[in-house]
């Protein structure tokens, strides 16, 4: 695979042409206010993992519409005082998996919470969170479910779940709610950016090769799924282009990034045809915080830095969580 997007020097100055809706903030304020009419009801049930270094809990909380959403909460064994917490969101098609696979951040001495993504998990990991909301016609996948209307769009539910996941993590007595970070890779990175724009008091975020950014460019630049789902939908519904673009504008990571208030560590891969680097830089370049940096992997595709990016996060995130 060769480089297919803009040269790196152009990426560092690239700006998205995504148009933000005039009622973007009102849309999300109303959405979150509606979700908070439901009791969060976070429940933490201990689970046996066979591991001596961590304590794990099966979590259920009320997400969008009061729907039950699952997660794992993992602590270093013997924790007695509140810890900073890392909240993670997972990639497209995946689920929360099993708790013994979620050891990096507890091993670094932090509380850790991972959210299940509603309706996903069959691709990898496994999930225990259904999406009880149906939609009109959509192309197979998740990106066009309810795409006719921003109020019905699938990611309205997911982003709301994610904000509630932060609230659920913060509700545990062994979490220092004032020291919360959000992280995620690919779809999880896009959800992280949404949370950064909707939760004003995070201390750090780390979106890794984020999906759901700069829809106008992403959906016309790459033939890779999931972005191709939009093109495939419009291949059939030829007259819905403006309607679809309007819906997606309420969920573009570029607009959430512009509202970010926490230090941020991004990553991009220059051979990434799934989440093209220009779309990642669109969000990074819109991010206003002076403490922001981006790791660039020149000869990698959507796998990005993998363990190298985790190493970068381990060198960067603790200083923000413990400051």
From TrEMBL:
SUPFAM superfamilies, per database record: alpha/beta-Hydrolases
Annotated InterPro entries: AB_hydrolase_fold, AXE1_dom, CE7
Top-level lineage group: Bacteria
Any single Pfam family the record assigns to this protein: AXE1
Domain Acetyl xylan esterase: residue ranges: 1-317
PANTHER family per record: CEPHALOSPORIN-C DEACETYLASE
Protein name as catalogued: Acetylxylan esterase
């Amino acid at each position: 695979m060769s480089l297919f997007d803009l040269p790196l020097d152009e990426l560092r100055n690239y700006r998205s042409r995504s148009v933000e809706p005039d009622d973007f903030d009102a849309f999300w304020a109303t959405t979150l206010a509606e979700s908070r009419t439901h009791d969060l009801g976070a429940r933490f049930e201990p689970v046996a993992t066979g591991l001596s270094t961590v304590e794990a809990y099966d979590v259920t909380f009320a997400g969008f519409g009061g729907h039950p959403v699952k997660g794992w909460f993992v602590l270093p064994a013997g924790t007695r005082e509140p810890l900073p917490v890392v909240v993670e969101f997972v990639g497209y098609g995946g689920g929360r998996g099993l708790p013994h696979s979620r050891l990096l951040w507890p091993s670094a001495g932090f509380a850790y919470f991972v959210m299940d993504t509603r309706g996903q998990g069959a691709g990898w990991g496994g999930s225990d969170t259904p999406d009880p909301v149906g939609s009109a016609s959509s192309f197979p996948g998740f990106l066009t479910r309810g795409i006719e209307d921003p109020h019905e769009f699938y990611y309205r539910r997911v982003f709301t779940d994610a904000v509630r996941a932060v609230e659920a993590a913060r509700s545990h007595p062994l979490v220092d709610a004032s020291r919360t970070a959000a992280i995620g890779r690919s779809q999880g990175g896009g959800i992280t950016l949404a949370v950064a724009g909707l939760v004003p008091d995070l201390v750090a975020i780390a979106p890794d090769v984020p999906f759901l950014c700069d829809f106008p460019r992403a959906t016309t630049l790459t033939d890779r799924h999931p972005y191709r789902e939009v093109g495939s939908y419009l291949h059939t519904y030829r007259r819905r282009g403006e309607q679809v673009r309007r819906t997606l504008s309420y969920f573009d990571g570029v607009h959430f990034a512009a509202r970010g208030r926490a230090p941020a560590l991004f990553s991009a891969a220059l051979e990434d045809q799934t989440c093209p680097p220009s779309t990642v830089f669109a969000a990074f370049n819109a991010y206003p915080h002076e403490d922001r940096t981006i790791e660039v992997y020149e000869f990698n595709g959507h796998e990005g830095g993998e363990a190298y990016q985790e190493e970068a996060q381990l060198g960067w995130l603790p200083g923000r969580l413990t400051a």
